[in-house]
Amino acid sequence: MSYLSIRDLEVRLKGGGRLLRRVSLDVARGEVHGLVGESGAGKSMIGKAVLGTLPRSVEIVSGQILLDGTDLLAMHPAARRRLIGATCALIPQDPLTALNPAHRVGPQITDRLVDILRWPRAKAEARARELLAEVQIAEPERVMRCYPHELSGGMRQRILIASAFAAEPKLIVADEPTTALDVTVQKQILKLIQAMQERHGTALLFVTHDLGVVSKICQRLSVLYAGMVVEDTDVRTFFRAPQHPYSRALLAATPKYTDPTHSLTPVPEAVIATVRAEVAEADRRAGA
Amino acid sequence: MLDGRGTIRHKAGLRLWLSALWLGLLVVLALGAPWIAPKDPLAQDLMLGRLPPFWVSGAEPGYWLGTDSLGRDVLSRILWGARLALTVALVAGTLTCLIGATLGLMAGFLRGASDLVISRLVDIWMAFPPVLFSILLVAVLGPGLFSIIAAIVLIDWTRFARVVRAEAMTQGAMDYVASARVAGRGRIGTMALEILPNVLPTIGVLLTLEMGIAVIVEAILSFVNLSISTDAPSWGGMIAEGRTSVHQAWWVLVFPLLALFLTVLSFSQLGEGLKDRFDPVLR
Amino acid sequence: MTEIYRVEGLHLSLADMTRKPLLGAAPRIEILKGLDFTIPRGAVMGIVGGSGSGKSTLGRALVRLLEPSSGSIRFEGTDITHLGEAALRPLRRRFQMIFQDPMSSLNPRHRVGGIIAAPLRLHGFDDVAARVDRALDHVGLPRGFAARYPHELSGGQRQRVGIARAIALEPEFILADEIVSGLDVSSQAQVLNLLGGLVRDLGLTLAFISHDLSVIRRLCSRVIVLYQGRIVEDRETAALFADPQAAYTRELLDAIPLPDPDQPWT
After folding, report:
1. What's the CA gap between A17 and A39, in Å, rounded?
2. Which of B234, C30, C48, C208 has its CA 20 to 30 A from that of C99?
3. Separation CA A189–CA C47 (nearest Å)
4. Contact C116, C146 (CB under 8 A)
């Protein structure tokens, strides 16, 4: 059974247009589910809806977000925050701004455990050291006493990963976690996320615009266009035989250094017209 | 598509119109004071001292907002006082803006030696307590319109210089500046044609704020009797006189205070409103 | 002369303001540590490397937004290494630059037409309006876009304006600094195809800075690989991808996640 199950999630700008159009998807325990699409397609919006961090200008209109069978949207907001705090975590996009520059790294990992989960401080610190070792940081003791600006981007992203896994979450949302990193560092970080996720059996919702990254880390993926899921399939099927013309077009636009004859084709107007028509049709049906 | 911006912009429009309305009205009244003012603002008549405003019993017809202890008409004095307040606001505000913004722009964009000199000057300047400084200045220069304006410009140019310098530094780091260099534009040209249009909205807001501040400074100087000649009508002078008789004749204090408050508030709202309304770049 | 740029022993150091002591000058960090290379006329030269490799610094030195500490840069035989701004001005028409972030490199207060026209006026062209129209045609934007502000355009359209501004001056050389890294794959493909076509049609020489070897392979005829301020490889594109010599090049290639679940990626 899936751990996270999103059913017909409908998100709108307050007093405005639709941002997510009846989005449904399932993520099983131990599974990595990719969310791909171009900027503005709503892929980050899904992660934010799950974690309850949507901007104030936006509202969930209808649908369900089931976490292990419990509908988050039917819960009292305070209880929902507690449940999310205890079971979910985020790996953010930008390691440079995600850590508070005014505080040392150690407390930024342990505070959540102490303040929200009421762990004794000694236990939280032991856990932080253990996790930093697990994300292959050589001197956990020293790094915990560092300020963020003393560490490299890759190092900070490791700390954020350690921090995300600290409270043994059942679900992690990773929002473009390697976009700001060099390709060589990206590889290390992706391998690390993958190893941690497998070891802890975490369900992972992985937001990215990079189909290459999806093919390396995800088992399933949803392709989004204008807040609508146009294809939801397993990774192998997607790369061998993408069903939707928009999926095929995205693949054709992605450069591949191993194939110099592969001519880069922008998403053709005809394909955009096709998905736009599908979106309009969906809007018409939702309106009816 | 509708979004949250619509409502914000609507509110901005309202405060823009209200503040523009008040200031426009004030300008017309100030310019027309010789014809509009019902009485001579300087005419004293001790028989008519401390008359209340028209809706209070005991009021005399023709003295709409009452009279002060010397029997001078409060409304007429407010209208004539507006001439002084607005002159100071426009002249002192504009001069302060021109001097401060130019220096700030040079310091922030040209950097180097000009920044060093201007920034140190600003630091030193700001170490003087502004109110004492201005009182001292007017005392030395002697009271008069010129002294008030000089005092405001000399004290407040640093406000513009600091903010504009910071803004010019931010803008100077943008790639459109590098791009102008690649195109072969010189430093001064880049400053005037690339940086200035991007700093202008900030300067505009500061300018209207400064006009409000100028009105307040003039009132303070009048309050301590250092403005223009002592019996010429000014809001600050009226407030000072009204203060002594507030228990017997509250109107002498309240009406000029209200005029001052509305004018200063309108200036600050006008700047913000204009920026929201006419800035083409929605950020 | 077959080369448009000849760079010899190029060193460049910048003041490190983050380590500036309370008193005294900031220490200088050496970004470029002795580079030697040439850019042949008509080449599309890829410059690739990780963050901190110095690739953007090298680019900005080539168009003399930065002044080298030592060594020399010759453009069409002229030594431009330490030329002052006044002496550079007539040369500036001939080497242009397209920037990474069009949101930052297009002045938000100017209309697209004005942005493209300004460099033309500076260099004394008389048929400015016609040249603006032609530049917009070249990059596939409707002429009516001249009246728009940058914030009214999409990311891909903005980057086309950046390209139009650079080609309007009919330069011999254009430096493109990470110009597709902020774009979606579809816009990226459009901009790359456009650039490839322009290089062919206008006989340009292009230096293309990127961190993405897949993009480099698609566009470039020759590649320089930079690592910590040094050139570790400088070869024809086909040869470099077929048989990378430097360990760092191999590491870069191995790290690229191809859109293919069967790629061994260890």
Report:
1. 17
2. C30
3. 25
4. yes
C149 to B193: CB separation less than 8 angstroms, yes or no: no
Residues of B in contact with C109 (CB under 8 A): 197-198, 200, 280-281
Q: Is B35 exposed, middle or buried (0-12, 13-18, 19+ CB in 10 A)?
A: exposed
Interchain CB distance below 8 Å, C216 and A257: yes
Q: Do B1 and A17 touch (CB under 8 A)?
A: yes
CA C25 – CA A54 distance, rounded (Å) = 46
Enclosing H/E stretch for A21 = strand A18-28
Instruction: Return the number of other C-beta atoms located less than 10 Å from residue B245's C-beta.
Output: 16
Question: Model pTM?
Answer: 0.86
Q: Does A13 touch chain B (CB under 8 A)?
A: yes
Pairing of strands A18-28, A171-175: unpaired
Residue C113 · residue C147 · CB < 8 Å? yes
What are the pLDDT tens digits along chain A (288 aa)? 799 999 999 999 988 889 999 999 999 999 999 999 998 899 999 999 999 999 999 999 999 999 999 999 999 999 999 899 889 999 998 888 889 989 999 999 998 888 877 889 999 999 999 999 988 888 999 999 999 988 888 889 999 999 999 888 999 999 999 888 889 989 999 999 999 999 999 999 999 999 999 999 999 999 999 999 999 999 999 999 999 999 999 999 998 888 777 778 899 999 999 999 999 998 888 875
SS3 sequence of C24-51: CCCCEEEEEEEEEEEEECCCEEEEECCC
In this structure, are residues A158 and A105 in contact, taking their beta carbons and an 8 Å threshold? no
Three-state SS annotation for chain B: CCCCHHHHHHHHHHHHHHHHHHHHHHHHHHHCHHHHCCCCCCCCCHHHCCCCCCCCCCCCCCCCCCECCCCCEHHHHHHHHHHHHHHHHHHHHHHHHHHHHHHHHHHHHHCHHHHHHHHHHHHHHHCCCHHHHHHHHHHHHCCCHHHHHHHHHHHHHHHHHHHHHHHHHHHHCCHHHHHHHHHCCCHHHHHHHHHHHHHHHHHHHHHHHHHHHHHHHHHHHHHCCCCCCCCCCCHHHHHHHHHHCCCCCHHHHHHHHHHHHHHHHHHHHHHHHHHHHHCCCCC
- The band of C1, judged by pLDDT with boundaries at 50, 70 and 90, is low
Interface confidence: ipTM more than 0.90: no
Q: What is the C-alpha separation between A62 and A53, in angstroms, rounded?
A: 17
Following DSSP, what letter does each residue of A159-174 receive, concatenated? HHHHHHHTT--SEEEE
CB < 8 Å to A185, chain C: 50
